[in-house]
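I'd like us to work through together how a protein chain folds, taking it slowly. To get us started, please write out a protein record for me. Go ahead whenever you are ready, and we will take it from there:
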Amino acid sequence: MLSLFAALPAIVLSLHFTIAAVARLSDALPTLHARTYRKTQLSAAKLYPVVPFKDDIPRHMRYVGAWYILTAAMLAWPSTRGSLPTLGLVLFWTGAGAWSRAKSGLKFRLPLMNASLGVLVFVMERLNG
């Protein structure tokens, strides 16, 4: 039971990255997909040096969605959950999301909360060995 409790932040963060990836990769969640598409139209150009597609919104969304799937998988897998590459991916994509949202005039609380959760996962995994 304790190990499940210790893994809960990683499970929550992995679930969030998975839902965000699904919103970008398909229209299985139509309302979330449409909302993500509208926000991406505002913020895609701000991420151009990082994401190579600033004018092609569907390609931009697929590119970011693929990285989100990788990040979610690394968070879900116990052997990579507390690794530096996983922390790097979480901080990179949450930082890019917060920065592009702030530049676009959108709220950026969720990316900052996810970055904090990513650091918590890293610290908890390191402490639990």
Remarks:
- Residues 23 and 32 are 6 Å apart (CA to CA).
- The chain has a mean pLDDT of 92.
